[in-house]
Amino acid sequence: MNMECLLPDTIPDSPAFHTVAVTTVRHWNDHLFSFSVERPGSFRFRSGEFVMLGLPQDGGKPLLRAYSIASPAWADELDFLSIKVPGGPLTSRLKSVRPGDQLYLGRKPTGTLVADALLGGKRLFLLSTGTGLAPFLSIARDPEIYSRFEQVVVVHSVRRVSDLAYHDQQTALWADDPLIHEEAAVQFYYVPTVTREPFHTTERIGTLVENGGLFPNTLDGPRRFDPEQDRIMLCGSMAMIRETSAMLEKLGFVEGSNSRPGTYVIERAFVD
Ligand SMILES: Cc1cc2nc3c(=O)[nH]c(=O)nc-3n(C[C@H](O)[C@H](O)[C@H](O)COP(=O)(O)OP(=O)(O)OC[C@H]3O[C@@H](n4cnc5c(N)ncnc54)[C@H](O)[C@@H]3O)c2cc1C
Ligand SMILES: NC(=O)c1ccc[n+]([C@@H]2O[C@H](COP(=O)([O-])OP(=O)(O)OC[C@H]3O[C@@H](n4cnc5c(N)ncnc54)[C@H](OP(=O)(O)O)[C@@H]3O)[C@@H](O)[C@H]2O)c1
């Protein structure tokens, strides 16, 4: 037993879930951390999807929550980016995981933040707040996305500088990534914004659309959204999704789904 966090060293098998071992853990700050787990041989998913993840609890039924997979579909391990909710049923325990600890992993990943739910286009904008970055870490590291789109722009809005998970890797245009560093060097753009601490960019996403700050100078095309050539994914708080969706609909964007691809797609990063 891992006494510090009351996590069991091994967990009982469950037919509905894989049992996977944690391989690495990184704490970004007091309310945000990343971890990776081994990938079961039979586990397939599309970049951008989420899966149920959890721990055993008293009474036998696993305690599970939805988690976006933050690594791309080709990766050997599955990465996750997690909030630590004070008193949260899962994360108040999950925040203490260490390499070797075991977790439950659902067998059926799903979700709408997938390239299949978007029509073809030139520029792909991945707009996130908080842990909503997670699915975009998956998509932006998938080689296929650079074949489908000429330019890929990740926008990450957070309260504090230390909330900018993967800031260094994205600023370096994924230079250490063996599979996509060549494409990313010319096709990847990263727009971080920090709204409650001094930073070079401090506006919310909506303001950055209005003032043009969301469109890097070296990006091709207009410094505004264009439904003809732009495709957009949104992941974050419900308020951000609601407000940004309303703006996109006014501009003529149409929400897509797996069965009916459109020009933008949404997924909430958590349930309020
Ligand atoms: C489709 C989907 C994908 C998700 N992907 C992720 C992910 O990749 N990473 C992640 O950390 N969470 C993600 N979540 C949220 C996750 O399922 C849990 O809510 C979270 O792990 C907290 O679990 P908990 O049991 O500790 O608290 P809960 O009882 O689940 O949540 C308590 C409260 O904490 C707040 N909260 C929960 N999650 C977040 C969050 N991520 N950011 C800000 N506030 C939050 C909400 O106000 C919520 O009501 C996702 C949720 C959905 C629906
Ligand atoms: N991040 C922290 O430092 C911190 C610390 C302790 C506890 N928490 C708790 O953790 C939870 C999640 O916090 P979080 O920081 O991950 O998420 P968050 O509060 O949703 O903030 C993330 C980013 O989204 C922006 N945002 C919020 N509403 C928006 C909207 N309607 N349109 C566009 N952008 C919007 C925020 O800007 P604004 O800053 O302008 O709102 C911020 O840049 C909260 O319950 C919070 O109380 C967070």
Structural account:
The chain is α/β, with parallel strands linked by helices and 272 residues long. It folds into two domains: 17-106, Beta Barrel (Elongation Factor Tu (Ef-tu), domain 3); 115-268, Nucleotide-binding domain of ferredoxin-NADP reductase (FNR) module (Rossmann fold). The protein contains seven helices and eleven strands. The strands form two sheets. Strands 4-3-6-1-2-5 form a six-stranded antiparallel sheet, with no helix packed on it. Strands 9-8-7-10-11 form a five-stranded parallel sheet. Strand 3 (50-55) and strand 4 (63-68) form a beta hairpin. Mean pLDDT is 95; it is low at 1-5. The structure holds flavin-adenine dinucleotide (FAD) and NADP nicotinamide-adenine-dinucleotide phosphate. Its EC number is 1.18.1.2.
Q: What's the layout of helices and strands?
A:
Blueprint: E1 17-29, E2 32-38, E3 50-55, E4 63-68, E5 77-83, H1 91-94, E6 102-106, E7 123-129, H2 134-139, H3 143-148, E8 151-158, H4 167-171, H5 181-187, E9 188-194, H6 205-211, E10 230-236, H7 238-251, E11 264-268
Parallel strand pairs: 7-8, 7-10, 8-9, 10-11
Antiparallel strand pairs: 1-2, 1-6, 2-5, 3-4, 3-6
List its traits.
Elongation Factor Tu (Ef-tu), domain 3, binds NADP nicotinamide-adenine-dinucleotide phosphate, 272 residues, 18% helix, binds flavin-adenine dinucleotide, Rossmann fold, alpha/beta, FAD, 7 helices, FAD-bd_FR_type, globular, 2 domains, 5-stranded parallel β-sheet, ferredoxin--NADP(+) reductase
- Note poorly predicted spans: 1-5
How is the largest sheet built, in terms of strand order?
A: 4-3-6-1-2-5
CATH topology of the largest domain: Rossmann fold
CATH superfamily of the largest domain: Nucleotide-binding domain of ferredoxin-NADP reductase (FNR) module
CATH class of the largest domain: Alpha Beta
Give the domain tally: 2
Largest sheet, in brief, is: 6 strands, antiparallel
pLDDT average, as an integer?
A: 95
The CATH architecture of the largest domain comes to 3-Layer(aba) Sandwich
SSE string, helices as H and strands as E: EEEEEHEEHHEHHEHEHE
Measured by DSSP, the beta-strand proportion falls in 25-35%
How much helical structure, as a percent, in the residues? 10-25%
Structural class: alpha/beta
Question: Helical region count?
Answer: 7
- Bound ligands, named by name, code or SMILES: flavin-adenine dinucleotide, NADP nicotinamide-adenine-dinucleotide phosphate
Enzyme class: oxidoreductase
Protein name: ferredoxin--NADP(+) reductase
GO molecular function: ferredoxin-NADP+ reductase activity; nucleotide binding
Family: Belongs to the ferredoxin--NADP reductase type 1 family.
